[in-house]
């Protein structure tokens, strides 16, 4: 068992309301299992990555159109985050998670039978909606199952479940699309089975009865830009400052990485494209276990620095046409996202009460995914206009500047905001 199971909770949780939290006697294996629906949905989120080259060949569309297809995932996700966090905090985790998993299964059906750009857009939209529900309600459910004494463990497992699923999806799709018949169908048939097991997990998840109707009951409109309680806005801002550049970097690798491999660097293997995405998110998973005991301020600073270094490596990769440098850039991007995500979630888990936690998770992801949708799309169209080398270079330099600014913001913030006492 990981030693994190017995790690003391941050002092901030001692005064947090315990309404909606599971008792600390919940077995540790249930905390791990509660994270499985997050993993299963994130497998779907990136499963299409190695397949875009096939769809581009069969349907015919540009790199700009490809990034638009990718961006509709962000549209669905942002739209979902506007309501799913608040809805989950008010009516419970399961009533939000179960419809999201059904929508994810519908996305598998559309992906598996897609013959047009419109179908790909619909599938990506459905996927984004499902992911939005999972990153708010699903990640909060892991914290509920863990209980107040294990909130830092819950943040670690929920964050790792997200990035591990995001990496497993493209690897699974790359291998199956090369070795199995009907590549764009088989991949999503397998993913549908994984999602079915996630449905069973949610149905059996030992969420406490009080979680269904948290007290005090949240107020305000049901559909709104998600936020955090008064006094915790700085924690949210610091998380976004580092998480947003990190997830934007990995989004670029996911959307245009296969094009870089096949067009610029001369590698067309879908297994290679899927494996690159997998090792990127494997780095994001592993680095979180490696840094989990560091102070949050240190984790966030390291995340910003790693993302910045990753963008410098990306620029070098496209300038020298070196596959090894591109893979290194992907690893650094994954590590940067992982640390930014863990630091942001840990700050929120330590400061936000359970009845607002799903909305706070949604707010963190809105701040991260907005640039993750806009900047890669801009880079895709810029690459169509001026070439992939110039487009990737401009993107890398812009994100480098954002990562450096995020790191400076963390260092300039008072320690008591980011570090446990």
UniProtKB/TrEMBL annotation:
Entry superkingdom: Bacteria
SUPFAM superfamilies: MFS general substrate transporter
Xref: PROSITE patterns: MFS, SUGAR_TRANSPORT_1
Membrane topology: Multi-pass membrane protein
Coiled coil: none
Region (Disordered), start-end ranges: 1-21
Listed transmembrane segments: 29-53, 65-84, 96-115, 121-142, 154-176, 182-203, 236-256, 271-291, 298-318, 324-348, 360-382, 388-410
Keywords: Cell membrane, Membrane, Transmembrane, Transmembrane helix, Transport
Keyword Membrane in record: yes
Major localisation: membrane
Subcellular localization, as worded in the UniProt entry: Cell membrane
Signal sequence annotation: none
Residues covered by the Major facilitator superfamily (MFS) profile domain: 1-414
One MF term in the entry's GO annotations: transmembrane transporter activity
Pfam families for the chain: MFS_1
Gene Ontology CC annotations of this record: plasma membrane
InterPro entries: MFS, MFS_dom, MFS_trans_sf, MFS_Transporters, Sugar_transporter_CS
PANTHER family hit by this protein: MAJOR FACILITATOR SUPERFAMILY MFS_1, RESISTANCE PROTEIN MDTM, PUTATIVE-RELATED-RELATED
Protein name (record): MFS transporter
Annotated organism of origin: Streptomyces rubellomurinus (strain ATCC 31215)
């Amino acid at each position: 068992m990981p030693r994190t199971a017995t790690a003391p909770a941050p002092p901030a949780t001692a005064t947090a309301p315990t309404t909606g939290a599971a008792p600390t006697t919940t077995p540790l294996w249930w905390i791990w299992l509660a994270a499985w629906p997050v993993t299963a949905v994130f497998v779907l989120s990136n499963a299409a990555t190695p397949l875009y080259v096939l769809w581009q060949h069969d349907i015919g569309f540009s790199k700009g159109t490809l990034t638009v297809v990718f961006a509709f995932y962000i549209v669905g996700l942002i739209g979902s985050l506007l309501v799913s966090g608040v809805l989950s905090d008010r009516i419970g985790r399961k009533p939000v998670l179960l419809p999201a998993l059904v929508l994810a299964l519908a996305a598998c059906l559309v992906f598996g039978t897609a013959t047009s750009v419109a179908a790909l857009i619909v599938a990506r939209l459905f996927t984004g909606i499902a992911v939005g529900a999972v990153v708010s309600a699903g990640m909060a459910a892991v914290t509920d199952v863990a209980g107040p004494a294990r909130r830092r463990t819950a943040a670690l497992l929920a964050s790792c479940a997200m990035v591990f699923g995001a990496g497993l999806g493209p690897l699974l799709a790359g291998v199956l699309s090369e070795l199995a018949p009907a590549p764009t169908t088989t991949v999503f048939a397998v993913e549908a089975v994984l999602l079915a097991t996630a449905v069973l997990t949610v149905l059996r998840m030992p969420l406490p009865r009080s979680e269904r109707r948290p007290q005090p009951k949240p107020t305000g409109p049901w559909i709104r830009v998600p936020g955090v309680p008064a006094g915790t806005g700085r924690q949210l801002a610091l998380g976004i400052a580092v998480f947003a550049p990190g997830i934007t970097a990995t989004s670029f690798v996911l959307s245009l990485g296969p094009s870089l491999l096949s067009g610029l660097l001369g590698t067309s293997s879908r297994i290679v494209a899927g494996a690159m995405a997998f090792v990127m998110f494997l780095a994001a998973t592993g680095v979180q276990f490696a840094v989990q005991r560091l102070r949050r301020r240190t984790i966030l600073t390291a995340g910003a620095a790693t993302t910045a270094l990753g963008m410098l490596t990306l620029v070098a990769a496209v300038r020298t046409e070196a596959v090894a440098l591109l893979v290194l850039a992907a690893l650094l991007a994954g590590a940067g996202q992982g640390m930014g995500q863990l630091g942001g979630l840990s700050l929120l888990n330590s400061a936000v009460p359970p009845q607002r936690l799903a909305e706070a998770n949604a707010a963190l992801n809105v701040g991260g995914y907005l640039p993750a949708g806009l900047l890669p799309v801009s880079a895709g169209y810029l690459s169509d206009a001026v070439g992939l080398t110039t487009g990737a270079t401009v993107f890398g330099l812009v994100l480098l500047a954002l990562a450096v600014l995020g790191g400076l913001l963390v260092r300039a913030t008072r320690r008591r905001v980011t570090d446990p006492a």
